[in-house]
Amino acid sequence: MNSYFKRGCIMRTTVLLSFVVCFLVLSLGGNAQLVHRYSFSGNVNDSVGSAHGTLINNNSAATFTGGVLEMGNSNLPNSNSTAINYVDLPNGMISSLGTAATFEAWVTWHGPSWSSWQRIFDFGTSGAGENQSVDSSNSAYMFLTPRSGAGTYRFGHRSDISMGGPVEYVIDGTILPVNQQVHVALVWNDVTGLVRMYLNGQRIAEGTTLFLLSQLPDVNNWLGRSQWPDTGFHGSYNEFRIYSIPFSDEMVQASYQAGPDNPIINFALPSNPNPSHLATIGNLRPTLTWQSDSNASIVGHRVYLGTNSTAVLKATTASTGIYQGTKTPGNENFIPASELAMDQTYYWCIEEVTNTGYTFKGPIWSFKTANLKAHAPQPANGAAGLSVGRVTLQWEAGQGAIGHRILLGSSPTTLAAVENNYTQTSYVLENLDYKTVYYWRVDEIFASQTILGDVWSFSTLEKPIACIPGDLDGNCIVNLNDMLLFSEAWLSSVDCNAYDCPDLNRSKFVDIADLAVFSANWQDSRKPLVVINEIHYHPDNNKEPVEFIELFNAGAQAIDLNGWKLEDAVSYTFQGVPVMAPGEYVVVCQSPAAFAAKFKRTAYGPFEGKLSNEGDRIVLRDATGSKIDEVEYKGEFPWPIAANGEGASMELINPYLDNNLGGSWRSSGYHQARPEYAYGTPTPGLQNSVYALNAAPQIRQVNHEPKQPAAGTPIVITAKVTDPDGVKRVSLKYQLVLPGAYIPAYLPIAIPSLVSNPYQDQPVNPEFENPANWNTLTM
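The structure assignment produced for this chain is given below.
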């Protein structure tokens, strides 16, 4: 049963709680079910395994006599004192038992009968950690005591915060007798989620478990000492054993009758799995084999297989899709009825069935099926804004593939092969069309079959704008070649707006008005449209040298960066850089190795210097020393503040905005609907996560006069609003808020809901969005 109990001034509250366990059970278990035995024949060594204990004989009163350890705590010392005697068992021995355990001991408790909370055993950790016995709100353990504060023989176990707690469950029986040897046993079963307590071979209580054995943080595994500052065990141990199977009632009774010197014959766990635990296999219909105990009492082997470890652990013969059937003795193999999924981790176990109806599960094993398809495409599926000059397709090959067939097209259903039996895992496409979606697929060729791949896609960027009106060939100068292109469209109707559009006044007709614009810019030139496009100046981990600056070629001409320089905040001279095609990115970083490890991409560098977290100036110059671009950023509003140490970078919304204005930037991952979500991963070498084709106008220098208006005083609101395409009109929305009538943008979350899910979205307040609560004026 579950209970509340109080001891002195310390309240331990036990609350009924249910939760889903999401931890993976990967313990391999052992062959023999009796895994640890302590007979106390002059020491506390493990005569079955290697988990030898250490007798902590602080007051020198602990003694061994005739296979009995007398603990020598007659003065009833506190568990956190230096006078307590106890046995310290190795860390991790309980959490590594597997999916079940049976603990049994023959002990004599000397009392006194009024002394509460002495421990026969206590496994886990106190809130203060290893070798500490202090009360804490975040301890986790399992214990057995001869007398609880409620005057009962008790088993209790407690989960900590990491397990969904703190919560403590207890089960109770009659207080143990004083100065009389008794047999105590505890059976824990992860499969059933139950724990049973026994006294002298009889089951006296049963309860539910709070966690899996593998979850227990067992750094304090003690006989005779508590995780709390309770009294040390005053008594003796004749035998202590740990099994890695859950005993049945009959087995506990048999062990009790056999006594402390004669362990009963027990079964061996299934072992020697094939595929081996954690293996990766290429066969999608593998033959699973294992070794079962040859004991004639085992009459069947139930096979469980699935993709969720907890589901396999808890499965029964009624678990459709996981229970695969029962194999007869000597038939220790299983072949799935159909092919398993690729690139999937599978969990499996064997449950042994005995002729008495007793069953026990072996350890949970796992294997992963290989991915025979081409996978992990680069650019990522659905990537947008790629360069038309050059796109490198990359992928990871299916395991064992000896060749690749590459298909490309403008429709997912009409792909044409561009390479057959290709041996590399990268392929370069050049001279692509602007604003086009491309589809591609890689089929993997094997000796006996071809595995068709998935269809992936990417899209190229929009046509860039002109450096200067009339520059129809995109080389940032209006000259004779542009005149020839202009003349070809003379007196014709057109519908265009990119750099190569001859309709310079956007009238959809090329005429004398366009010629006037062209003539005004004749022989004029501009600097290339290479912009500082992304800045990562304050990583979330200050120890990682992953600062970077990204350049973007926003123009229509290819740029040779060799000899170009970054100056001021950092210094770097470009050398050995391929020609930068239109729409391509170049990244310069603090440490290319650290950058590659963090972002899985390549970059140039290292640059000299460091980008300041408070703000800095970055200047880009061409090979002649002419300034091409400049950004003087800040680490505070109106610049994106989430880029200052929250893990985000600072990204330009559109490459044609004035990037020396804070409003032209957003933090990577910025979410327009929920601006507080501004902590996305940087996107070096890729289209910015905040990219917008039609960016919002810049609004700044917002003021109102007077600062503290009196009733009836006119209020003048001013703002500077700019946009590269011009501003048609500006509207002001405002609320009249009476005292105490403030309308919040978001609604509060109830405390119980917040405790259960601290990371949930704060709901939007519909009243805040209601147009009836706003007034609109045209400025």
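Interim note for the steering committee: Residues 1-32 have pLDDT under 50 and may be disordered. The domain at 273-328+338-369 is CATH 2.60.40.10 (Immunoglobulin-like).
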